Amino acid sequence: MLTIYNEEEDREQKVEEPDASLTYSYADYAKWKFLERLELLKGRIFKLAAANTNHQRATMKIGFDLYGFLKGKTCQVFIAPFDVRLPVKDRKRDDQITTVVQPDVCVFCDPAKIDERGACGVPDLVVEVLSPSNSQYDVRDKFDVYQEAGVKEYWIVSPMQESIMVSLLQADGKYGASSVYKKADTLHAATIPGFSVNINELFTH
Fold first, then answer.
1. What is this structure's pTM?
2. Residue 67 half-sphere exposure, CB side, CA atoms within 13 Å?
3. Which end of the chain is more exposed for a tag (fewer CB within 10 A), N or C?
């Protein structure tokens, strides 16, 4: 069951969630008014759990640091909830897009990809912060989606292990061997020259 807000009656109500055996497009997604956060991965629906405290801390620190660094520059940073439509090739119509994600943090360096509904196109950098409830989803399912879409740099932040795993897209369109940054390390972003994250400071409350 999912929760929908009924504007006419000014109340919440429980409804049967869309049929899990079917696939959906952004045209369907845009019509839904569910209170839960949802993502579409290749037409399949995934519900997003609420972020815990450590998840929020890491997301906000990285997002705010990026905002300050990018202020006045072409690249822009966005923090979830922010819809990113990932079209396959040039199939950009609402009924052709079957993947809509809400990365914890993402950076776009092409302003043409940003519109009033979010973004349509591939981010240059995606940061996903793990929680106990979403680890497998971000590490396996979304890793594959971001690789296929062509996201140049993908960070998986683990507050539990106090580490960041970085995957960089290679010339063959696949992510190379991931690098893991832990305490005492400084991570320098490949797609945003000059921006860095001190791992120890990131996980210091």
1. 0.89
2. 9
3. C
User: In a 10 Å sphere around its CB, with 0-12 CB exposed, 13-18 middle and 19+ buried, how is residue 185 labelled?
Assistant: middle
Give the Cα separation of 94 and 84 in Å (integer).
12
128, 142 contact by CB (below 8 A): yes
Tens digits of residue pLDDT in 188-205: 999 999 999 999 999 987
- The dihedral of CA 109, 107, 40, 139: what is its sign? positive
CATH code for residues 53-202: 3.90.1570.10
pLDDT at residue 92, as a whole number: 87
Radius of gyration of the chain (CA): 17
Q: Count of alpha carbons within 13 Å of 180, Cβ hemisphere only? A: 5
Residue written as token pair 């019509």:
31
